[in-house]
Design brief:
The complex is a heterodimer of chains A (about 110) and B (about 110).
Chain A (H helix, E strand, L loop, with lengths): L4 E3 L2 E5 L4 E6 L6 E7 L6 E6 L5 E4 L2 E5 L5 E6 L8 E8 L6 E3 L3 E6 L1
Parallel strand pairs in A: 2-11
Antiparallel strand pairs in A: 1-3, 3-8, 4-5, 4-9, 6-7, 7-8, 9-10, 9-11
Chain B lengths: L3 E4 L2 E4 L5 E7 L5 E7 L5 E9 L2 E4 L6 E3 L9 E3 L8 E9 L2 E4 L3 E5 L1
Parallel strand pairs in B: 2-11
Antiparallel strand pairs in B: 1-3, 3-8, 4-5, 4-9, 5-6, 7-8, 9-10, 9-11
Amino acid sequence: TQLLEQSPQFLSIQEGENLTVYCNSSSVFSSLQWYRQEPGEGPVLLVTVVTGGEVKKLKRLTFQFGDARKDSSLHITAAQPGDTGLYLCAGENTGGFKTIFGAGTRLFVKA
Amino acid sequence: NAGVTQTPKFRILKIGQSMTLQCTQDMNHNYMYWYRQDPGMGLKLIYYSVGAGITDKGEVPNGYNVSRSTTEDFPLRLELAAPSQTSVYFCASNALTEAFFGQGTRLTVV
């Protein structure tokens, strides 16, 4: 069974601080996605990483896919209250049929 | 473009009742999924489908059934509702490496 573990589970920080959340697995994934979910809504895709070692930037967010395609990280620079939400990583298995989600990191950024 | 549409948005069921959660997508995606999300948690895969007429179990299929007679529709059936099925249910369709989600169905079983 493929499993994605996210850490930390909960993070509360002040506006302007930097943070990193992690997504780890013992399995290899063909691609990995990061989603952000706000209360009462479905998850919305932030980024997809496909190649081992790949780094993608989305404004203040930096995403990295591990060389072995088993793990990923999301780094937020100068966090803002608008970044508050549940951040989910999701992996596509090598067959490409199933998307498995981690339990998420709940981020709260205080003004 | 409506994307993925789920109905109903809210429902309260009594123990032992049955219901069908509806999901339809207008993006012509072959892959569709049902997830459940318990409070403060991530998403658990219930069932998925890789195309019309093809379905398979996910991580937590017990107590649920699905069908996929058309590309557009992927209903989820609860036959004998139990309190453990109280959750928010999300339907999604997948285009290569991105999943598009509906807004969810909040189900309470009492």
